[in-house]
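FAQ: What does the model actually see?

It sees only this:
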Amino acid sequence: MSTPHETQPALFDLEVCERHLLAIAKRDQDRFTGTTIEKHAETVGAVLAAVAAGVPREHIAKLAGISTKTIAGIVERAEANGEIAGWKQRMSRLLGRAAESAAASLAEDLDSGKITPGQKTLTIAILTDKRLLLDGEATSRVEHVQRVTPEQLMEEMKRATVSIT
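And it is asked to produce this:
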């Protein structure tokens, strides 16, 4: 007696179905990761220049008529290829420019009454601190202070021995 699988042919070939699904997924992946737009070198160049200049991705997406996910894909590949600086370097430059710009207009904004003295100075301090942190610089200083009286100093000097070699 035969089993049901032997008497009925398969409805579809699973391998063919898997290949088809992978092909569809690949097309969607290309469409949403920026690989399709890579064919348009002028657009990609403009996107990368804008990203390097610190333009927000939402603004770039609106101007270029592409999604922020596409921009992310373009940027990721450009970083991997060394075409643009990494996120840390770009952010450091952007924070530096922001701190410099805020500091440059500080006196003007204070004089005009646009801001209170603490608002912009706090912003400048935060931007500077974050840039230093990204650049691996020190962002704080720890100082250990020990109070020594003249009597304690004299006692230490008496205990010290001098050796001549």
